[in-house]
């Protein structure tokens, strides 16, 4: 049965990566069936994404702890002891279906930053909220954005960090998570969107997706030449 769930996930990924203008209503109905089938056989509790607990986990890497990250807890100041407010802080946010423990790209990016200069790097794990159905994961981007915003406010108000030293990098749905953060924490230095998700976001209001007003500098990188242009 697990193979059925895997097949459904692969098909979902294929369609969700497509240009949604070419997907008809019957195909969308088929996607909904795939979502239900994958949930049924994946072994993941149906109410997982409805949990009131936080959807985000934060792991801090610094020049002193470049390979062994520290899990941050808002209520435990000891977990912030390696954070240096004088350094620029890079915040890496994954997208749909990704998991920090198995997605090497976030750790590779962190390592490259550490080779480039001294930074604080925070890897955000919101794998409690990015699972299927895609529509629920997309809706969770706002909640995760709120949780990251609270973290940045703590870093600003309690540890002396300045918004102009925050650079958020988001992939797929993570790009829009970063956009929500920019709505709440004004003056962010930079947001970089890596292949921002288009499905359910192309017609959304600027508040509900990454747009040029979310930071002092917003750049977007596309690697899918067949996708939709991002002109906002």
Note down, in words, how this protein is organized:
The protein is of the alpha/beta class. Helix content is about 35%, strand content about 15%. The protein is built from five helices and seven strands, in the order ααβββαβαβαββ. A seven-stranded mixed beta sheet has the order 2-1-4-3-5-6-7, with helices on both faces. Helix 1 runs antiparallel to helix 2 and helix 4 packs across helix 5. The protein starts with a helix and ends in an 11-residue tail after the last strand. About 10% of the residues have low confidence.
Structure, briefly:
Helices cover 36% and strands 17% of the residues. By secondary structure, the protein is an alpha/beta fold.
Low-confidence stretches: 16-23, 39-51
* Widest sheet: strand ordering: 2-1-4-3-5-6-7
Major beta-sheet overview? 7 strands, mixed
Helix content: 25-40%
- Secondary-structure-based class equals alpha/beta
Strand percentage, roughly?
15-25%
Order of helices and strands: HHEEEHEHEHEE
Distance between the termini: 42 Å
Q: How large is the count of helical segments? A: 5
Principal-axis shape: globular
Strand segment tally: 7
Average pLDDT number: 82
Rg, rounded, reads 18 Å
Subcellular location: Secreted
Protein name: Inactive pancreatic lipase-related protein 1
Pfam families: Lipase
Domain Lipase: 56-225
